[in-house]
Every structure is written in structure tokens, then in C-alpha cells.
Write a structure and sequence with these properties.
By secondary structure, this protein is mainly α. The protein contains 16 helices and no strands.
């Protein structure tokens, strides 16, 4: 419990710092949008570019490990969309943002440290196999779903063309695809590119979390706490449960491997779910509240899953 607290607490502190800075006038509210634009258009693409560029797909890609995690994620995304649309009567675009918050885990900021602390560095091989394609797969599917959901009666060819343009011009996915090209081609990254992208990538976590806190000054959890609670429950409980069922009882994956994927699925909603919402300006308050709720609640839920899966 203490090591989970030590990992998750700094995340919440950074969010609180951004909130307090804007609330007290120490940071201008007008500057929050520019800060998030920097994260969306520069810092996050550099981080993902470097991650995909350096991963070894030949040794880490194991379908029996990867497929259950993503099948579970998409099921949870569908449940999130259905809950937002049918239960809370949200508009299509807002419902997609809710679904994205239900499927996107904080695999890097919280997941990697928790997995390493719980199961050692050897477990990170399995973790990186999932994380390497995490943003590429989920952002691509999420963006296509969003474009279809908000097509407003437009013909399907026009909708798909718009979706293709959105994907092709999204800085985050451009970073992923450039990293993939560099990885598969074997081209050595120039030192200047390496050093520059490394510096910019370092800004993702503090800038995104600080910006999230600043944005929260405009919202109140009380306004949509019930919907955020439902989405948070899907993320923290349903996602890891389905992952465990598919991997252990169904596919008989060894528990030493399965528990890494299950633990990643049990992580709180990733900051990129908020990035996704701000990019489309749909369901931003819901995404922000879900990130906060799941991050706080994960103190207890991660500990519960660690007890269930076993330590060491």
C-alpha cells in the first residue's frame, strides 16, 4: 500500500498544484489552453515517437498477452459509450469521450513504476509489449469512432475522408507513425533529433498534469459525479476483470505473465483520455473528473488487485 501511495501521490500533487496555481492567480487561466496545446502538438508526439522507435517488436510481441488486454479495453470503451449515451443522455461526441476514458489506462506514469515495484524489472518486458502499441491502437480507434459519432448526417464517404484527414494530421499519431517507420526501417536516429525530442518529451507529464489541474478550476465534480463514478468503475474494475478472465481461465496464460497485463488494465484512466477530450472539445469535464476519481480510488483498487494476483 505504501509503495502504491508513493507512486500515485506525486501525480495527484501535480494536479493539485496546477489547480491551486490558477485558483490563486499564480498562473494565468488564459495560459492553460496554450500549455495543453504544447502537450498535444509537441511534447506528447515526441514522447510517443521515442517510445515506438526504440521498442523491440520481435521479442516483445506476444498475441496471447496483448490481445486479451485490448479486447477488454474495447469492451470497456463500448460500455462507457453506452452508459453515457443511454443512461446519462450525452451527445454522441461526449459519449465517445466517456468511452475513451473507460478504456485508456495510465500505463506509463503509474503502470510502469507499479509493475516494476511489484514484480521486478523482468516483468517490464511483458509491460512494454502492451505499452508500445497502446497509444497507436487506442488513439486510432478512438479518433475514427469520434469522427463517425459526430458526422451529423454527413455521407459515409465524407465521414471516412474526414476521419482519415483527422488521423493523418493528428500530431500524436504522426509521432507514433514516424516512430514506427524509424523502428521498422532500422534508420539510426540522428543525435540532434534524439537530444531534442528527449528534452521535449520530458515535459509531457508535468505540463499535462499541471494543465489538467488548471482546467479543473472551470469544473465541479458535483456536476457530473454519478457519470464519472460509472466510467471510473468500468475502468478500475471491469477492465482488469475481463483481462484476467480471458488470460487465465480461457487462454491459460501463466500467472507470472497474466498478472502484468491485468495490473496494467487496473491502472487509473490515463492523462491521454483528457488529452483526447481536449483535442475534440467533447466531454472535457467528464474526462478530467474521471482521471481524478480513478487516480484517487486507485490507491485502494491497485492494492486489492495486487493482493488478488499475488506479490513476488
Amino acid at each position: 500500500m505504501l509503495f502504491v501511495l508513493s507512486v500515485v501521490a506525486p501525480v495527484f500533487v501535480l494536479v493539485a498544484l496546477g489547480y491551486g496555481a490558477v485558483r490563486l492567480g499564480l498562473y494565468p487561466k488564459s495560459g492553460v489552453g496554450g500549455l495543453l496545446a504544447f502537450v498535444n502538438n509537441f511534447a506528447a508526439p515526441c514522447l510517443l515517437f521515442r517510445a515506438v522507435y526504440s521498442v523491440d517488436f520481435t521479442t516483445t510481441f506476444q498475441p496471447a498477452t496483448i490481445a486479451p488486454y485490448y479486447v477488454s479495453a474495447f469492451v470497456c470503451g463500448g460500455l462507457g459509450i453506452a452508459a453515457a449515451r443511454l443512461w446519462f443522455a450525452r451527445r454522441p461526441g461526449e459519449s465517445v469521450s466517456s468511452g475513451f476514458s473507460a478504456l485508456f489506462s495510465n500505463t506509463v506514469l503509474v503502470g510502469i513504476p507499479v509493475v516494476e515495484r511489484a514484480y521486478g524489472q523482468s516483468a517490464l518486458i511483458t509491460a512494454f509489449a502492451i505499452i508500445a502499441i497502446h497509444a497507436a491502437i487506442l488513439f486510432t480507434v478512438g479518433m475514427i469512432t469520434m469522427e463517425v459519432a459526430r458526422r451529423d448526417g454527413a455521407p459515409w464517404p465524407q465521414t471516412m475522408s474526414r476521419a482519415a484527414r483527422a488521423i493523418g494530421t493528428n500530431p500524436i499519431l504522426i509521432g507514433v507513425f514516424l516512430g514506427l517507420i524509424g523502428n521498422l526501417s532500422g534508420i539510426e536516429m540522428p543525435e540532434l533529433v534524439d537530444a531534442t525530442t528527449a528534452l521535449i518529451a520530458l515535459a509531457v507529464v508535468p505540463a499535462a498534469l499541471f494543465g489538467l489541474g488548471g482546467t479543473l478550476t472551470e469544473y465541479r465534480i458535483a456536476e457530473n459525479w454519478s457519470e464519472a463514478l460509472v466510467i471510473s468503475s468500468i475502468k478500475l474494475a471491469v477492465h482488469p476483470t475481463i483481462t484476467w478472465i480471458l488470460m487465465v481461465p480461457v487462454l491459460n496464460v501463466p500467472i507470472e505473465i497474466a498478472r502484468v497485463a491485468v495490473l496494467l488494465a487496473a491502472m487509473p484512466a490515463g492523462i491521454n483520455s483528457y488529452v483526447f477530450a481536449t483535442y475534440y472539445d467533447r466531454g472535457t469535464a467528464m474526462a478530467a473528473n474521471t482521471v481524478l476519481m480513478t487516480t484517487v480510488a486507485s490507491f485502494l483498487t491497485i492494492s486489492a488487485w495486487l493482493w488478488f494476483l499475488g506479490l513476488g
